[in-house]
Design brief:
The chain is α+β, with helices and mostly antiparallel strands and about 725 residues long. The chain contains 21 helices and 26 strands. α2 crosses α7, α18 packs antiparallel against α19 and α18 crosses α21.
């Protein structure tokens, strides 16, 4: 009947969360990370007290701080008996049940509970010497026998006391004998080997279980029954040396838990009523075996774990208050009805949100690498035997036939490559090494370029790799999820006057939000970095470690939906190339303003009609040359150069007939062409100019270089700078 709030229940106040544990535990970095997140919600008042209060017999439990919810866990030197008295008196909601934690203090009792509820463990036998009990022991170099129960060596000897970490491993004679003593980490040591110790201890109560060499030592951390985090560490039984990362922390590798391990985690949480719990698992022959349950345990240095832990504790605390005080708040619109229809109910404005469309870019990626080669070899053209369209290879099974064809081609070129093929051979070796190293983001594309008589005779080989999602990119995808639903689906601004009203209002809002997000549909491009970003975003959005079925869509239909399929696509590409050439070049295209005259424009070119009498034109007040004059001057420039080139080609041997014919055709085409659309000044990028002439005049590249030399000779007064 006593009010735990110590005041009027109608007054607005926060949920009081008590933390009672050893001061070393409550002041740890992991605990601070979680408590800081809980305080940031603005719904909790956190009260912490340690052994200076809990273990002081002069302070009655009635005088302890009063709280609505409690985090309390035992550790070495911290007994929970007084905490249990406090829980009986105040009846707060316990994140971890304080009464079942007594089981962890006795390994024999722990194993009996695990066996009772079907949680797999290794075969074990006991030497129970409590209360003066005698145990019949028979031991040889290869086995031990306790009260008639035999177990072969190697064996693990564990004290009954759960906080006693002096665990010994005894080896059989065929393994070399001896004993390895395991203990709490001291600097970089976690165990020591003693070759002269071969007999088990006989001065206390011990549990013996079979020791399996060469197996993985797995640490599992739970946050409620629906989440488990797994890490693999170096077993202390290997050599006793602790593997540490550059930060000095014990090196642990994240691992994906199997379905059996996830089931075991859920069973342990439910059986022992420990929401935040850690336990040890050994993987052997495809099975998982529990070897110890530790109770309250934290993952160190994992921000995602801290976020998840704080969210779960918040959910449990507010849910427990709502369960105790069922409130019915009348509203014009029913949130349950909205939740059933998977629409979001905005209680502040009395609005209903039926749909929300958002476009995201993938997170940060590694640099993309690409290698393009022109191929006419039959080993590559063989890939087009069943198709004449582009071939894309991503999966390992798809790349395998291409890899075999590539190896045949490289072997043939290595036996006798022409001088022109030596550079191609080097590039093909790069492609081979990229495939063999299984670079992330690897993709092979074969695009047909020339088709004759229904067969592909030339193709472009494109090898692409890289562009994978970085760790920062993955964190970005996770970060945007809470931003998305907190900004787009905002909580009510008026949470209520009392604590019970706040909890009920939040539960209602959360139910409406979660139901709305259950209908989320994500369409992702068919690239690994995009799909990885989408999965991380979905998991954080729906607050689940698994992507719900029929939520993420990524196939050819989705790719077509996301690609640009408009009729203007080709024209847009042409415009992009044109804009890029103008931006990256120092040349200026004059079309819109005929009065504009570029600075540094050389008007004294002998082939330009506006440059014949510059003084007269300026005296007469003539306007600067227009775009038409500039195009005409360029036409004259190119035409005179072509004529000089043709005259030179006519004087050469008969082997140049083909070049002479091409030059004459280019001259005819140039005389009939009036709209080149650009002019040349002294800073023009001649490389780009060469490419344009190749495209427009169809002049061979070697003839074009000769043309360039002739133009320079004809225009000594005008410098054409090659960039």
């Amino acid at each position: 009947g006593e009010d735990k709030g110590g005041g009027d229940t109608n007054s607005s106040r926060k949920c009081v969360l008590g933390v009672c544990a050893k001061r070393k535990k409550t002041s740890s970095d992991a605990m601070k990370q979680i408590l800081d997140r809980l305080r940031a919600y603005g719904e909790f008042e956190v009260v912490v007290w340690g052994e200076e209060i809990a273990m002081d017999e002069s302070i009655d439990v009635k005088d302890w701080p009063i709280c609505d919810c409690l985090i309390a866990f035992s550790s070495s030197g911290f007994n929970l008996s007084r905490v249990q008295e406090y829980v009986k008196l105040r009846k707060p909601y316990c994140i971890n049940d304080v009464f079942t934690q007594n089981i962890f203090e006795n390994r024999m009792q722990l194993y009996e509970i695990l066996e009772k509820y079907g949680i797999p463990t290794f075969r074990h036998i006991y030497a129970d010497r409590r209360n003066g009990r005698e145990v019949e022991v028979k031991e040889t170099d290869d086995y031990i026998m306790l009260d008639g129960k035999k177990m072969k060596k190697p064996i693990v000897e564990k004290p009954f006391a759960g906080d006693d970490h002096n665990i010994y491993i005894y080896y059989s004679k065929d393994k070399g004998g001896g004993c390895r003593k395991l203990f709490r980490k001291v600097k970089n040591k976690s165990s020591s080997f003693f070759a002269d110790i071969n007999t088990i201890r006989r001065d206390g109560s011990y549990c013996y279980e079979q020791f399996i060499e060469g197996v993985k030592d797995l640490k599992v951390y739970t946050i409620g029954p629906n989440y488990a985090h797994g890490e693999v560490r170096k077993s202390p039984a290997v050599d006793g040396i602790v593997a540490r990362n550059p930060d000095g922390k014990e090196m642990r590798l994240l691992t994906v838990l199997t379905a059996e391990e996830i089931f075991i985690a859920r069973r342990i949480v439910n059986v022992f009523q420990q929401n935040i719990c850690g336990f040890d698992v050994i993987r052997y022959n495809g099975r998982a075996y529990v070897i110890d349950v530790n109770g309250w345990s934290f993952v160190k240095g994992n921000m995602r774990y801290y976020d998840k832990c704080a969210r779960t504790i918040r959910k449990l605390c507010l849910g427990s208050i709502t369960g105790k005080h069922a409130l019915s708040i009348e509203r014009p619109l029913s949130a349950k009805t909205c939740a059933a229809k998977k629409v979001f109910h905005d209680g502040d404005n009395n609005h209903i949100l039926r749909s929300l469309v958002t476009v995201f870019r993938h997170g940060d990626r590694t640099p993309k690498r690409k290698l393009k080669l022109k191929m006419t070899h039959p080993e590559m053209l063989w890939m087009f035997k069943n198709t004449k369209t582009e071939v894309k290879l991503k999966k390992k099974k798809q790349i395998l036939p291409f890899q075999k064809a590539l190896n045949h081609l490289i072997a043939r070129l290595e036996r006798g490559a022409r001088p022109a093929e030596l550079k191609l051979l080097q590039y093909l070796r790069v492609v081979r090494s990229v495939i063999e190293e299984e670079r992330k983001g690897l993709k092979i594309q074969l695009k047909p370029k020339k088709i004759r008589e229904g067969k592909v005779v030339e193709c472009i080989l494109a090898c692409k790799w890289g562009g994978t999602l970085t760790r920062m990119g993955l964190e970005q995808a996770k970060f945007y999820a809470p931003v998305f639903w907190s900004e787009m689906l905002r909580a009510p601004s008026n949470p209520g006057s009392t604590l019970q009203e706040q909890a009920a209002r939040f539960t209602e809002y959360k139910g409406s939000r979660s139901k709305f997000l259950e209908g989320i549909q994500v369409f992702a491009a068919n690239e690994s970095r995009v799909k990885s970003s989408a999965r991380a975003f979905i998991r954080e959005t729906v607050q689940d470690d698994d992507v719900p079925p029929n939520t993420l869509h990524s196939d050819n239909k989705v790719q077509d939906f996301l690609d640009d399929v408009s009729k203007a696509h080709q024209h847009i590409d042409i415009a992009k190339k044109r804009v890029k050439s103008l931006v990256t070049s120092k040349a200026v295209l004059v079309r819109s303003d005929p009065r504009y005259r570029p600075s540094g424009h050389a008007s004294k070119s002998p082939s330009s009609p506006v440059a014949k009498s510059p003084k007269k034109s300026h005296a007469a007040g003539h306007q600067p040359p227009t775009a038409g004059h500039q195009k005409k001057g360029l036409n004259n420039l190119v035409t005179s150069g072509l004529r000089s080139l043709i005259n030179k080609l006519k004087q050469e041997s008969k082997n140049t007939r083909q070049k002479r014919s091409l030059g004459e055709k280019a001259l005819q085409r140039q005389n009939s062409r009036t709209d080149l659309g650009f002019w040349i000044d002294e800073d023009f990028d001649l490389t780009e100019w060469e490419l344009r002439c190749l495209r427009w005049l169809k002049v061979p590249k070697n003839a074009l270089k000769e043309l360039y030399n002739h133009i320079v000779a004809l225009n000594k007064q005008k410098r054409l700078k090659r960039v």
